[in-house]
Amino acid sequence: MFQLLLQSSGWALFIGRFHPLLVHLPIGFLLIAALLELGRRTNKINVGAPAIAFILLCSAIGASLACVAGYLLSLGGGYDALLLDRHKWQGIGVAAFAWVAWFVSIDKFKEKIPLVSTVYAGTLGLAVLLTMTAGHDGGSLTHGEGYLSQYTPEPFRTLAGMPPGKVPSEEIKPIENIEQALVYKDVVQPIMEMRCTQCHNASKSKGGLRLDDMSFIVKGGESGPALLAGNSAESDLIKKCLLPENDDQHMPPKGKPQLTNEQIALLSWWIEQGAPADKKVGELQKSDAVKPALASLTSGNPAGPAKSTVSPVLSLKVGQADEKQIDALRKAGLLVNSVSQDLNLLEVSAVNAKDFDDRQIALLTGLSGQIVSLKLGGTKITDASLKEIAKLKYLTKLHLDHTAISDAGLANLKSLDYLEYLNLIDTKITDNGLKSIASMKTMRSVYVWKSNATDSIVNQLNRSNPHVVITNGMSGPAIAQFLQIGKNAARDSTKAL
Amino acid sequence: MQNLLKELQHTHLQHQTRRHFLQSCGFGLGALGLGSLMGSCTAASGDSTPQSVKTGIPQFAPKAKRVIYIHMAGAPSQLELFDYKPELIKYHGQDCPAEFLEGKKFAFIQGVPKMLGPQGKFAQYGQSGAWMSDYVPYLQTVADEITFLKAMHTDQFNHAPAQLLMHTGSARLGRPSLGAWSVYGLGSENQNLPGFIVLASGGQQPDAGKSVYGSGFLPSVYQGVQCRTGGDPVLYVSDPNGMNRGMRKQTIEAINEINRQTYEDVQDPEILTRISQYEMAFRMQMSVPEVMDVSKEPQFILDMYGVKPGEGTFAMNCLLARKLVENDVRFVQLFDWGWDGHGTSKDHNVEGGLRQKCRESDQPIAALIQDLKMRGLLEETLIIWGAEFGRTPMQENRNGLVMPFMGRDHHLDAFTMWMAGGGVKQGYSHGETDELGYYGVKGRVHVHDIQATILHLMGFDHEKFTYPFQGRNFRLTDTEGKVVKEVLA
Lengths: 497, 489
Hints:
CATH class of the largest domain in chain A: Alpha Beta
CATH topology of the largest domain in chain A: Leucine-rich repeat, LRR (right-handed beta-alpha superhelix)
Number of domains of chain A: 3
Strand content of chain B: 15-25%
Shape of chain B: globular
Helix content of chain B: 25-40%
Order of helices and strands of chain B: HEHHHEEEHHEEHHHHEHEEEEEEEEHEE
CATH architecture of the largest domain in chain A: Alpha-Beta Horseshoe
Largest sheet of chain B: 9 strands, mixed
Distance between the termini of chain B: 78 Å
Number of strands of chain A: 7
Order of helices and strands of chain A: HHHHHHHHHHHHHHHEEEHEHEHEHEH
Structural class of chain B: alpha/beta
Largest interface: A-B, 50 and 53 residues
Structural class of chain A: mainly alpha
Strand order of the largest sheet of chain A: 1-2-3-4-5-6-7
Number of helices of chain B: 12
CATH topology of the largest domain in chain B: Alkaline Phosphatase, subunit A
Number of helices of chain A: 20
Radius of gyration of chain A: 35 Å
Number of strands of chain B: 17
Oligomer: heterodimer
Shape of chain A: elongated
CATH superfamily of the largest domain in chain A: Ribonuclease Inhibitor
């Protein structure tokens, strides 16, 4: 009866939420009392017994208040019963032992109790010990079990016999083949794990709801099932996310990281499709609304070069370039520019020196520690130059288009550890040269239009080397197709008029 | 004594007239003759630039090395092209709700206009599911290269001030344009071509005139150089009859020598500008006709863009833009006039008129993206498409009358722009408008925000990229602007 009354009034939770605040007072007081007692007994400090007794009184009162607040907080529900029970009794134990320790430390009782010193030391010790265990369980209740050790680094992880670290990521891993992905396991569950299961799991199930497994989602919580298969608009899971963020019922709670529109669209779509547990994306009908959201899950657009990564070279600290070397390059007509004001890295371009040739290429070697981008398109260099270019260890972008280079020269570039971009348009390279380049780990984009590389090899290499995008020019049929699309559409729209 | 004074005055005048006349001709009427043909910063960097910015060096490594900015002057309707509003179909022909009109001023709409449903047929394209209408069939093929900004907004509802705001960050005259800031910051790479080139089509210049590509208070080497698309690309750059190149060279060397001496006397940095202009003009005699000549382009490329040699069309300008960035020109600005679809005439409406403008521009824009991509240039070239504002979800009712064609009025609260290439996401849409397309409700981007974003892509913090003028540091975004991080790749 009393419990019901408390639950129905806001007072219970209001006071209850002071528990995490109050609970730190007895922890601190008890530790201080124990430390002072230790110091006193080892004659390290000069402190009177009454002082310690007073601190013990404070901790006993604090612990009692924390117990009351803790009980009121627990009425709000949503905690693992077993863990909560253990925490409750440990907390009460702290309070009880603190009272006893205080009681026996008061002067007037000292003489009347046998073995007073042993009782005193024992109760104080027990209170401190229980503070630790109760505190740990309390932390587990609030933050979830395993919170403390989640980020245990190696080698301690292996030593402690813990499984390899599984860190909840802030980003869902890109899915390689979205059509083959399982809707629940690969799309829905990662979203839940990122945004929902911190509070809806085995040890902490707020609102009686667990979202860490399909069966629990269907079962729902105190307010009924979380989803209504086939009807996302009537499913609490979606409704709560769509409420205004200020609404008390809104999920995730205000201040916590929120679901993105795409994530909500994905969850709604899954529910609309009947919330299947083991269907693949390809087996379900896709609404227009969910297509961009699904696209956002893939690892970028396979049709175009992946541009999001920044070259690791840009974070290297390299020494300043020799001004004399730069001047020599400039005298040869090359453009030499800093990559940016805070970097010593250089970009070199022969845009104004189309006569640049093999005889001058050695000029670059003096800046091999700085050059990251080299544009030699349309110059007179040949394969001989590539031996020198291969010495530019930080080179990330290389334009060799419209030059006489061939496979023989290209082989030199394999030693470059950072090369990402290679423009081979209008050169003599062939399929063989391209094959060796495509397997370079850092390579991201290669352009081979008007070279001797064939479409079939380009397509094959693009498939077998997903990290690199090789682009050939549009062939006659491809351009005809491009023009046809427009013509068809134009004809259709004239009809519409 | 009197004679002596007279003689002094006389010599002084004699000394003044010729030099002063030439000088003020060049400096005062900067757009005259050779004066308008410059753009390289090769000579001007160093002495004439202030300490705050080391020109030619970005503040951080840029993703976009070059820019092609396509401005559709007059402002096409986003509601016909990209911003799909199915709800608006339901309200077609109904009175505009009062809350849209309260406290609002429009360029032409008066009283209570009717809502106007979208005229295009919309569908989603590409893996990204980008919404586009049948007005732009070719652009559909490159949907996954594009980042849309669907909730753009501006402060100005008349063409000229809105264009000024879009390109110079201020609706008033006198500020440097985005292209000028870019060349000022990053320098110019090809010494034979201006770093900032402007090409206009559609039969008229942009409403705000040359100021939209001017250099404002920046040294005038940074202003945009307009090239003609038909005939001589640049007027007066070829040698007159009877003067050969050697003689022209000697003339220019002599003039520059005199200018250099004057500079040593008076230390005016604009003289350096002048010297570099002469040198540039001389080099441009060779390089400009070459780069502007499309006769050597293979037929399939001409077909792809839909270009016929000799035509000064928008399609031709797109092809030239590719040739210019291929030759490392920093900033190419395209203007195409005739997008002002009020519904006043056969050409200016959101039905047939807009369709015709799209027919002329859709194919070359898609071809430009494809062409840059297969040349390996799209990765570092940023393409921006947009206008000075958008168009209303209401049908225009100029003077309270029914217009002869379907048209929409200028609208500053919501319009669409898109970007592709250097450093922006591929296949992405940022921002949303309400269900009638009147206001941006999510991801709103102001003109200053997109400017900040463009500068960011070019390696500059828009708040630290400044130029001291009349006692304070000026920047493109004035005191506003936030980089739209969501669109960055």
